[in-house]
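pipeline/complex-builder :: batch 7 item 3
reading input block
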Amino acid sequence: MNVAANMNRTNGKNGSNVSEPAWVRVLLTAVALGFIALFLLLPLGAVFAQALEKGWDAYLAALKEPDTLSAIRLTLITAVLCVPVNLLFGIIAAWAIAKFSFPGKSFLVTLIDLPFSVSPVVSGLIYVLIFGLQGWLGPWLQAHDIKIIFAVPGIVLATVFVTFPFVARELIPLMESQGRDEEEAALTLGAGGLQTFFRVTFPNIKWGVLYGVILCNARAMGEFGAVSVVSGHVRGATNTIPLQVEILYNEYSYAAAFAVASLLALLALVTLAVKSVAEWKINQTLVTPGSER
Amino acid sequence: MSIDIVGISKNFGSFTALDQVSLTVPSGELVALLGPSGSGKTSLLRIIAGLETPDSGHILFNGEEATARQVQERKVGFVFQHYALFRHMTVYDNIAFGLTVKPKKTRPSKLDIRDKVFNLLKLIQLEQLADRYPAQLSGGQRQRVALARALAVEPQVLLLDEPFGALDAKVRLELRRWLRRLHDEIHVTSVFVTHDQEEALEVADRIVVMNQGRIEQQGTPSEVYDHPATPFVFDFLGNVNLFQGRVHEGKARVAGLELATPEHAAARNAPAVGYVRSHDIEIERDALDVSALEAEVRYVLSVGPLVRVNLALTDGHGIEVDLARDVADRLSLSVGERVYARPRKVRVFTEDYQI
């Protein structure tokens, strides 16, 4: 019996006696695909359909509206500030966690996951508590005329907090799977720390870094909860794209709301595309040399 | 360059990897650190390289204190068990790496690097594979590239961590003979770690047998094989049979045999164990004298050039005997047959006393 099953498998036949019956496989696949169509593709299509409902000109006009342009600008600024900070933090944290052992390592891993487990609203409120007028540093900040809450710095801070796990989370398992051997080889060959990083470590993780950056960027541009708390919703000044969408929607300008929302949907599609390329490349670097241990 | 290891200890948590190890590696020799896994041999190698810091003790290179030197300053070539080639670089770039990371002042010109790399490629007989990536090479080729990469920086010491451990049997054999020839050519002080006694016996000038973070014995291959200092070394190098017994004033009685053991002259009826290598036992059909033990053949296996015979002594104790094939053919033993086993060389160790 066992031998027969093995022979079937090694013969490369479809091995029907070790797999589910055909109708089960078809049903499961259909359910999965149906679910994706209903909950992902349909809404995505709806966003674009709604956005273009009143025609291409209306769509462009909605995007050219000054408050919307300002929201786009603020979103880009936030992303441009957040992503490099989290890139640096993520690489350093992943390097430390994957390549060294030190006391408190598992605590650090838990801390990195914190933003995932905390509701974004709470993340925003933390900053209000610290920097807000009634907060710990509020009076001092006001005395020195520094605005953080209900201003751009607060939005950036909240976004940094919410998005900092992405790069680190992506790199830790990748770097752990690659081990320390190549770095140690570089050191014995006389390379310094930075040379080792840029010539050995980084080339091995670059696709993972890209993947992390893409995810981090997508979240930085799309973050709503935390930003909403610290932004103050000042039109043309402290609204990011997601906040602008909400405002437009609440004002019943559906076409404009969906037009702006379609930008985020496009971002999601681009993210997905880059992400799958990066994933494919990561798998390629993992199957390559000497990793067959 | 000679290496002196003085009183090195290393703990990983509660595990003692190395316990007060002292050892001298003379300049130009090829030394094997031999031992089972967990015996501390790899830790010792990594401490020599500077990849690990000892808890106490000193490392001296050419008599100079080197314990605090950074890895980069030690000028050691290190070859890893799993090659550790830079996977995103070609064979050429891998070998050139050590030269290209040198500071501008001491870095050779592009042309010099090229010459050097191609000389090394010639040495490892892989000239035509310079543009390949490590993934496109076989295990044996990768390890040779790793060796060339280590040699490119002209190290004072070559350290090899189970260099053939990940290769299949035939390639391993080829490569270790090649390493021996290479060492005869370039004479760089080399230390290699292995758990394969055959490899150590064949390749090394000196063997250091390690067990539980300590050195059990060191010496030339024939010294450690022919005159094992401890039961562990006896057991670790080759197949061995154990006979329980006692020693009293220079005379041992093990498994019904009387043996003169002048080295145990001081022993007073002490428990002892007789060690006999499985190829140091003869099998006879007839009992010629009392120094042969009656036994029954349990099974006979042929293992390549050898025939392994498992015998049960009259007390039920099992022993293994390796016979040359021609000897076994002449005897043509059958299972269940009554024979006599005559140990040629017995080494007696008392339990508390080690020579």
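note: Residues 169-186 of chain B form the longest helix (18 residues).
queue -> next item
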